[in-house]
């Protein structure tokens, strides 16, 4: 049983975590760097460094027991659980302003398997966008072998996942819900092929969490963090896709944009990004060259956190 995950689930919902988040994350990271991150060591460190939070956690025995029972049920269903600071935690997430304290996933931690590309776009893409993905993005996947990260929604997201699977590539489906309430429900048909390809379904929410509208935008920052860059296929103005692009830029990650005609409302947001300096992607060759120019993260890049 993962007692650290159970304890972390309580901690991240406690009001004190919101005000002392940076201090708590530093404790997790330091313990993780010392290979000593577990429930007991975390409580001991918090008792010394944030005693009021330690006291609050110590008083929640019944809640901890309930979370442990839920963690056991998740394990029985094949769910893997990780906390901030653990070895499998995505390194790119350490650079986020508000990184997830916990993550759960079905499948393999494929974000560790190589260079990843986040792909975002409309739920109702135009014909030209889907054709571009079939021709250019598919050719890029064949040559570059990326780990494809997207959100599992209909339209561009599912097209990106499908092309990755067709080329036997790992793909990460980042959910706006818990693993026990996959959204959209049609994703249940994708579980077997995604896991068989070495990919995963990833969530930062509790197992039974249902989809809520605000979770889409919250989820999108994780998509942006997991890619070395974000490829924006098609975006209207004031769309969730643009929010993902802005979050990628805040992380210092490049945003690559497929252009469209100025009179086509499907591409209003895309053209805005290009006018603000985003890199234009015409075809598979542009994408291949840009992708290969992005360096893989080095271990030393996170030393400033210690």
TrEMBL record:
Domain of life, per lineage: Bacteria
Any one of the GO BP annotations: DNA-mediated transformation
Pfam family, one: DNA_processg_A
InterPro entries: DprA, DrpA_SLOG
Ranges for domain Smf/DprA SLOG: 80-291
Family: Belongs to the DprA/Smf family.
Protein name: DNA processing protein DprA
